Amino acid sequence: MYYLNETGDETTTSYNDAAKRYLGTADPDVYGGLSNNFRLYDFDFSFQLFYSLGGKVYNSAARYDENTHSLFANTTEYIYENFWREPGDITDVPAPQHGLNHSHSSRYLMDGSYLKLKTMQLGYTLPKGLLSQTPLTNVRVYVSGDNLYTWALGSDFRGLNPETSSTGIIWWNYPPARKVMFGLNVSF
Prior knowledge:
This protein has 2 domains: 26-60 and 108-187, no CATH class; 62-103, no CATH class. It is 7% helix and 38% strand. The chain contains 3 helices and 10 strands. The strands form 3 sheets. The chain has a 5-stranded antiparallel β-sheet with strand order 3-4-7-8-10, with no helix packed on it. The N and C termini lie far apart (72 Å).
């Protein structure tokens, strides 16, 4: 099914009669970050948040993962719970059909907004009084994490990670690895 005009209120099955329709851009409306460092007595805490609001993500992997041409092929729980079953159903997921069809569709164009907890660190520095009888001048223990969590803010996003390159296309991109590290800094 193709749109006959830009508003999408008329459709056709003829590709040659179809009109172009603007569906958005991969560029976010707003993006940025927030970071801060806190210190209270001998404890310190820091974090970095990144966000992107607006911008479309094309989930090309969903063309395969959300295949509705056979419920016995690749499919997801979302598809199984939301596909069209009978007249009167309101959904954007077509009824299953036999055969394979991995056609591009605006159905796989999703809101790419997200909020990401990029880094976080919590540390404790031993008081100088405890170190006065040792050759140590400073001892700090800490735990830090990278890529801790990403919240997809778009209600229609289905995938692993809405964060993309500048192309706005995701496949089966594995999200950046989550890392948790423990450390000890010692100064003499």
